[in-house]
Amino acid sequence: MSIYTASKTTKWDLQLPEKIFHIKGTVVVSNHLAGPFKTYRRIWVNKIEIFPESGNALRPFYDCSFEWGKLGQKASYTTALSICLSIFKSERLAENLFIYFKEEFVQNFPDSNFELVLETSKFLNQHNDMLNPDLYSRFCFSAITSFREILLIKNSQTGLITADLAENYAIHREAIPNARLRKLNERKQRLLFRLFAKGDYLVSGYEFTEIMLKAEDLMTRFYWRSVEKIITSHQISDKRVE
Fold first, then answer.
1. Taking the domains of the chain in order of start, what are their residue ranges?
2. Rounded Cα distance, 84 and 118, in Å
3. What are the φ/ψ torsions at residue 49 (nearest 5 degrees)?
4. Residue 156 φ then ψ, to 5°
5. Distance of alpha carbon 49 from alpha carbon 120, whole angstroms
């Protein structure tokens, strides 16, 4: 069983005063005569405007602006995190959920102006594992995933923090729609990382900074090992062609 599987008896006690939220987004075109036209985006949650600085403060890697829709780039993560902060009123819960929120909602927002209603109950039930009160999500620049987040578990009694980097490398590959194939792919990726890291794929300690330094180091070495294998494979193929 994964260390990230939430216990059925230990869940985050959300007690949200609201479960239905009205989201409004507008695309504004500046008409300043002194310079070129620029566009920027604004968002309101239940008629209260939110700002990208709130999400960017927690994940400064992403742009400090709003984007959404199919063509949204890195700022879409800022959008998702900022909305989650407004909805869930908790930095840690927002950090645990914003990647999923981005994939399920933000990237499906209309590309232009929009107004819509979001109901969060189904979303929270679907991502019940993220409601584990011992779960933390931290940004890892070197993570070879599309979202660069590392999940960690902190033992509430001992204070020991643990991250399974093999599991982190394997999970969250929703690009494969077939559930069976996705599970097989996750197993393959998990075994691949364990083969590389040997017994070091589990990192633990008592400080988040310490754990993330270990994670960055191992993920960086795994990345360059992967690049090295790709280059070697291409060189062998080229020699065969010759």
1. 20-126, 132-241
2. 12
3. -70, 135
4. -70, -20
5. 19
